[in-house]
What we know:
With 80 residues, the chain is an alpha+beta fold.
Amino acid sequence: MTRLSHLAVGDQAEVLDVLGDDALAGRLMEMGLTPGAQVRLIGKAPWGDPLEFQVRGYRLSLRRSEAERVCIRTLATASR
Length: 80
């Protein structure tokens, strides 16, 4: 199991879990990062933070530390 923050641009993954039971974990799930949701990393800022994802038909920007809280299973990797 890996974390959302470890994806490369173009990679796709399935959300397995959001770690924690605090307000941030709840907010991540409210934004659509629930188990079973498919996510694709669209881009990164020049210094690697924030990260931009496509999830459930919309774009979502997260700090790297927030993406570190989301456990995923990689589905497809972009050709490098």
